[in-house]
Amino acid sequence: ISGFVLKSITTAIGYNIPITISTEFIYYIILPLLLFESAYNVNFHQFRRQFKTITFLATFGVMISIFIISVSLPVLIGLPLPVALLFGALISATDPIAVLALFKSLGAPKRLQLLADGESMFNDATAVILFRLIASFVIADQTVDSVTIITGIGSFVYVFIGSIIFGGLFGYIISKFIQQIQNDRFVETTLTITLAISSFIVAEHAFGLSGVIATVASGIILGNLGKTKISGGVAKFMRELWEYVSFICISLVFFFAAITIDLNLLLQNPIKSLTIILVVLLARAISIYLSFYITNNSKIFNTEPNTPLQWQHILNWGGLRGVIPLVLVYSLPDAFEYKQYLLIATLGTLLFSLFVNGLTIKWLLVKLKLHIPKKEDQILKEESQLFTIEQHKQNLKTLKPSLIQNTALKQIRQEIQDQQTQHKKQLL
Fold first, then answer.
1. pTM
2. What is the DSSP string of 319-369?
3. CA–CA separation, 127 vs 159, rounded Å?
4. What is the pLDDT at residue 162?
5. φ/ψ of residue 370, rounded to 5
6. Could you give the CA distance from residue 322 to residue 320 in angstroms, rounded to a whole number?
7. Over the stretch 345-387, which tens digit does the pLDDT of each residue have?
8. Which among 252, 281, 293 is positioned nearest to 26, based on CA atoms?
9. Which candidate, 244, 261, 251, places its Cα nearest to that of 330?
10. 3: burial class by Cβ within 10 Å (0-12, 13-18, 19+)?
11. Cα within 13 Å of Cα(91), Cβ side
12. What is the rounded CA–CA span in Å between residue 274 and residue 262?
């Protein structure tokens, strides 16, 4: 909004803002920071419970979405097939940050939150890899034949496996460095930022690997193995700092997207813009329901719990488009003739996603009664509270009588006892 307002004011007074943000800065700094922050917060032990479902959704689901968009837009609005394919790759990545915050505040099921978060992080990686692969053919105007396809598949396998190994190893090494540092929040946090950016750049330029996968792998390793090495007093500071870094990165990309886009082009052909948005929504719906139909009915996935239809509705409508598609559009060279067109289509879809899907997902959660915590979630919560109270009672026993008045001590004990009784009753 601030970007649009500033754009309107400067246009009215005829002043051109001399501030720009380079493609290289967005791709090599902002993108790895965003990916790392998301990967760093993944709990791998919880993620394993839904590993096959999430990875299927983030690969097969994304490819189905890309296919539908790439075959629909040339027919409906006359967009060239290669450009439609490129747009499908960049717009299929989802970003449910706002939805996840809503899940937590309303008490949505934990497994639903895990599905949304896991799918988002891994479909980012899938979409970026496919986007770079497609862009290399579209922009260079190369012909696609059997040789290039086989070469591309072989390259994809090498890049995929190699990037995981490289990123995981890099994350492990930095974890060991952090282990040697005691309670220095600036050095420990700087090491994580260094890991995020250097794993991306080194993977891309030194080894010809995928910076996206390498950064995600290093973030997961550090977020699970490395967290145990981080000093206790530093962990909270690091978590809050990374949240702030993510906020700044997202704000920069949205702000510069708003002040650089030509608003007249955005509003010039509302029918075409609406068609693009509807196609993206349709592609998302088909990819979600088809993917879950397969995972719920295939023997390959029978070791993991099925995903209820109500959850599928939420994952479909809550698949907001975030900053990654904008980052990918900006990574295209300025000489590419469809760059401005793709930027307009992407921003229009993003705005619809944020202001329509984002503002109605709460209503849908309440309508489907998914805002009420499940019984098992309530049981876990009450048990956790009882464990905490027991810890408080043990801590009280260690206090020296001289440090606290007897009357105050009795009052605290009584309050803790009342809380324990209340939680036991609730648990029963």
1. 0.70
2. ----HHHHHHHHTS-TT-TTHHHHHHHHHHHHHHIIIIIHHHHHHHHHHTT
3. 15
4. 86
5. -95, 0
6. 6
7. 888 888 888 888 888 888 888 888 876 666 666 777 788 888 8
8. 252
9. 261
10. middle
11. 33
12. 17
